[in-house]
Structure of C3H1-type domain-containing protein:
Amino acid sequence: MNSDSRRTSGRDGVEVVDHRVAVCRDAAKGQCSRSTCKYYHIPIALPPAPVMAALASYLQ
């Protein structure tokens, strides 16, 4: 692999290869325990608390 095509982002340490990143599968499951992870952690936006509460009561 060409060294110019692979680099590490200085901002968050996520490894970038050919302008692409790999998603952390552990983080997607809420289970990443790495102190510094080279994979991208997708920010997950949860619905507001009232919506979550309504959903939880509906599912019970």
About this structure: The helical segments are 25-28, 49-59. The radius of gyration is 17 Å. Residues 13 and 38 are 6 Å apart (CA to CA).
